[in-house]
Amino acid sequence: MTSFRQVLAVPGMTPLLGISLLARTAITADVTALTMYVVLALDMSYAAAGGVAAALTAGVALGGPLLGRMIDRRGLRTVLLATVVPQIVFWLTVPVLPYAILLGASFAAGLLMVPVQPVTRQAIAAMTTAGQRRAAFALEAVAGELSYMVGPAVVILCAATLSPGVVAWGVGAAIVAGGAGIALLDPPLRAEDEAGGDAADRPRRREWLGTRMAAVLTMGFGATMLLAGIDLAIIATLEEAGQVSWAAMVVAVLGVTSVVGGLVYGTLARPLPTWLLLGLLGLATVPAGLARDWPWLCAAVIAAGLLTAPTLSTISDAVSRLAPAGVRGEATGLQSSALSAGFALGSPVVGVAIDASVPAGGFAAAGLAGLLAALTGYLLSRRSSAPAPSPSPTPEPRDAVAPTP
C-alpha cells in the first residue's frame, strides 16, 4: 500500500479524488434520475425514458472532445463556468419541462456536462510521476466503480420516498457542487516541466492521434461495451430463474471485486498490457453464462470483477502517456466519448443476443465484444512502427498498449 500512500500524499490529490468521487457519483446517477422522473412523474413508458437517457448519453459522447479542446485552449475554470451554469438551469427546470422539450434539453445538458472524469485524469497525469501514475489511475478506476455502485442505488431509494423532481434537483446539485469544487481547487493540468498551452504549441492531430491512440480508444470502447452487456445479462439470467430481486447482490459482488482488483493492481511492480487485461476480462465473462441461479452467478462474476478496474486504469494511463501536454484535454475527452459510446451500445447489442438465443448468449456476446476489442487493439499497436510523441521527459513505457517484449 506504500504506492497508494505516496499518491495520496501528493499535494491536492486527496481533495481532487474526493470531489471527483462526489461529482462522478451524481453523474452516474443522472440517467437513473431522469428515468425515474419520466416514468413516475410524467407517467410515461420506459421507452420514453430510454429516449431521454439516450439523448443525454449522446450529448456526453459528442461533447467530450469539444470540451477537452476548450480546456486545452481556454483553461480549466473557463470551461467549468461554461458547463456549471447550464447544469444549474437544466436540473432546476427538469420538473417543469414537458417531455418534448426535456428530450432536447437532455441532449444539451449532456453536451455541456461538467467534464469531471477528463479533468481528473488530466490532473493525475500532471500531478504524479511516472512511477506513481499506475497506482493513481488505479485509485481513479476504483472511485469510478464506487460511483457506479452507489449513485443509481441512492437515486432509486430516494425516488421511493421523495418526489422524482426533488431527486433530480439533488442529482443536479451534486453535479454543480462537484464542478464548483474542482474550480476552487483548480488542479494543475500540466506538469511543471511541460510546455504551456498556447495554440502554437499544439501538435497537429495526425501527430498524436495515430494507431497506438486508436488502439487504446478501441479497447476503451470494447471494455465498457462488455461491462454494459454484463449488467443486462445478469438481469436476464436471474429473470429466467425467477430470482431477479437478487440482481443487486450479483452487481454488488461484481463491483466489490472490481475495487479489490484495482487496489491489488495498483501495487504491482510492473504493469500489464491493456490488450492482455481486456482479453482476459472477455474470457472470464463468457463462462458466467453457465450459472443458473444467483449464488453461482455471484461466484461466476468474481473473475470478471477482479479484472475490470485494472483494465480501465490501464486505458487511462495509456491515454495520458500517449497524448502530448498541449492536447491532453482533447485526448481525455475522446477517451470519455469512447467509454460513453461503449456503454450506450453494449446493452442493445447484448439484448439482441439474449432475444435471439438464451441469457447465456448475453454473457457470450459481452465477452466476445471484449475479445474483439482486445484483438483489434493488439493488431493496431503492432502496426505502429514509430514511437508516439512523449508527453513528458520521462520515457514512455511501450507495454501500456503494446505486447510485452
From TrEMBL:
Superkingdom to which the source organism belongs: Bacteria
Transmembrane intervals: 46-68, 99-116, 214-238, 244-265, 272-288, 294-315, 336-354, 360-380
InterPro entries in the record: MFS, MFS_trans_sf
Signal sequence bounds: none
Keywords: Membrane, Transmembrane, Transmembrane helix
Region of interest called Disordered, as start-end residue ranges on this chain: 383-405
Family matches, as PANTHER family: MAJOR FACILITATOR SUPERFAMILY (MFS) PROFILE DOMAIN-CONTAINING PROTEIN, PTHR23542
Protein name (Swiss-Prot/TrEMBL): MFS transporter
Native organism taxonomy: Bacteria, Bacillati, Actinomycetota, Actinomycetes, Streptosporangiales
